[in-house]
Fold this protein.
Amino acid sequence: MRRAFLLLATGVIVLAVVPWGDFQGHTHWAKVGWIPFVSPPVRLRDMVANLLLFTPFGAAVALNVSGSHRVAVTAVSAATLSFAGETLQLYSHTRFPSATDLVMNTTGAVLAAYVVARRP
């Protein structure tokens, strides 16, 4: 059941993040928001959505990893998945890859992993 939860959480992220309908054969480096919370677009709504999107993933990873390194494994896993998603968005006319998204995605997963790790 724990692995199914992890697969489901990962699948939801892949469906939400990958530019399925707008994939181009060239990159759009000029659209990248390089500096977290500074480079546009910076919208509170997007930040909260990214935080919440990765929360189930963080909980699922933490449930599938045992030991004291759950939160660290979750952080690396979330950052890797988020980086892959942001990189794929480079190939979209309508998406905006962002360091803010990367930070918020990772933060959402880490917060959830911390809650799971603290439970009895």
Q: What stands out?
A: The chain has one domain: 2-118. Residues 2-118 form one domain. Helices lie at 2-17, 44-64, 70-88, 99-118. Residues 44-64 form the longest helix (21 residues).
